[in-house]
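Subject: Predicted fold for YqgE/AlgH family protein, 186 residues

User T.R. writes:
Posting the sequence so we have a shared reference for the thread.
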Amino acid sequence: MIALKPAKGHLLVAEPTIIGDVAFNRSVVLLANHSDTGSVGFILNKVLDFTLKDLIPELKFSFKIYNGGPVEQDNLYFIHKVPHLIPDSIEIANGIYWGGNFEAVKELVNREMIDENQIKFFLGYSGWDADQLNAELDSHSWIVTTNEDQTGLIERPYDSFWKDKMLQLGGEYLLWCNAPENPSYN
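User M.O. replies:
I've generated the structure tokens; pasting them so everyone works from the same file.
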């Protein structure tokens, strides 16, 4: 599982050695796109302190907003598993889709035809230039894994996601499961 190459639909799991990077420390990133020209992903486990309704007051219901990454944090992005309800969606992999018609999303939210088990919203995204991700992989900043959760990725609890990945990796990573976020606090 550790020797995978990055690919669209794979997950990037932050190595425990990423300390002090607020965005990427203990993060799990879904690669929404990966090619020779670069990569785009969304951090799946960094919830923000405000909701979708805070950003778009005309919505009747709130959804959590996640920090998708440090790029374009003033833009809203979303992944989902209901392409039959959201036109113009782009499949990432394994039944997970990126984007689509946002007017349709707003209507689905207001009519309670979609819930947080089907869609996840992000401010910003994580992006890498052509060789940047490879350099970070070479410096052991990330572990590339497959997405075993398939479409369950969206409803997966965010607060234990990174720890669960450490448990799955086993070996030397087990030590990090119960370590404080900043080891100097120990």
